[in-house]
Design a protein that fits this description.
The protein is of the alpha/beta class and 261 residues long. It contains 6 helices and 11 strands. Keywords: Cytoplasm, Hydrolase, Metal-binding, Nucleotide-binding.
């Protein structure tokens, strides 16, 4: 199997090393793992592409490239330049440091990379590691993803729903905020919503008297609806959510037609 990996934490992020190990095992001894990842951290850029300016890409080693762009840029660079002669069979994005569950999914560059791969017609999985009091130590942060990543990805590759719709399915995987030996298993659930965890800003004054604003997120350990991604993670399960890029509110179409047409 030929696998492309990317992330939004940057080419030197520890989560990318974890993902590389997962991908190598999935690809097998006859397979290939290609890395095209941002040269610098790109957290929070969602599905951004560098549409109005070019970005530099550099080869760092065999099948390893860094691009001065977003994760979606990296996927485009891989598919149409670096790997143009033979497209990958699978695209993996992550492993993100921090969860991309609930509303975080909408801001995530990690998901942006997987979403772009799906739009390009390829199977794609985004992987993120939830952090909390039980796994915040550096040695434990990616343990759940490292120990359970291969099994989860392989299960999706072999048994996941893969279609050829215009807006193809891709998968959002979040590993729970616990050490590997406390992971209870894998559960499928929808994207949740943390009602009191929206982003905001915090003003600061620099030594020179300039006013700056830091973006600040809300509490990450607020539960979501039972059976949804955050609730599953906080209960110790790997959460798997199928997603599409189609933003249409299909549940409202018929009612809106009746009101407006």
């Amino acid at each position: 199997m030929r696998i492309l990996i990317t992330n939004d934490d940057g080419i030197n992020a520890p989560g990318l090393k974890v993902l590389s190990a997962i991908a190598e095992e999935i690809a097998g001894p006859e397979g290939e793992v290609w890395t095209v990842a941002p040269a610098f951290e790109q957290s929070g850029v969602a599905h951004k592409i560098s549409f109005t300016h070019p970005f530099m890409i550099a080869e760092l080693g065999p099948r390893r490239y860094a691009a001065e762009g977003s994760p979606a840029d990296c996927v485009l660079a891989a598919l149409h330049d670096v790997m143009a002669d033979a497209k990958p069979d699978l695209v993996l994005s992550g492993v993100n440091r921090g969860n991309n569950a609930a509303e975080n999914a909408l801001y995530s560059g990690t998901l942006g990379g997987a979403l772009e791969a799906a739009l390009q017609g390829l199977p794609a999985i985004a992987l993120s590691q939830y952090l909390g009091p039980l796994n915040f130590d550096a040695e434990l942060q990616f343990q759940a993803a490292a120990e359970h990543g291969v099994q989860t990805v392989r299960a999706l590759v072999d048994h996941g729903h893969w279609d050829s719709a215009d807006y193809r399915i891709f998968y959002n995987v979040n590993f729970p905020p616990v050490p590997a030996d406390r992971v209870k298993g894998v559960r499928v659930g929808p994207q949740g919503y943390r009602s009191d965890a929206s982003f905001g800003v915090e003003p600061h004054i620099s030594p020179a008297g300039r006013r700056f604003l830091w973006i600040r997120g809300g509490a990450q350990h607020l539960p979501t609806a039972q059976g949804s991604d955050v609730a599953l993670n906080l209960d110790g399960y790997v959460a798997v959510t199928p997603m599409r890029a189609d933003l249409t509110a299909h549940d409202c179409l018929d009612d809106l037609k009746a009101r407006l047409e």
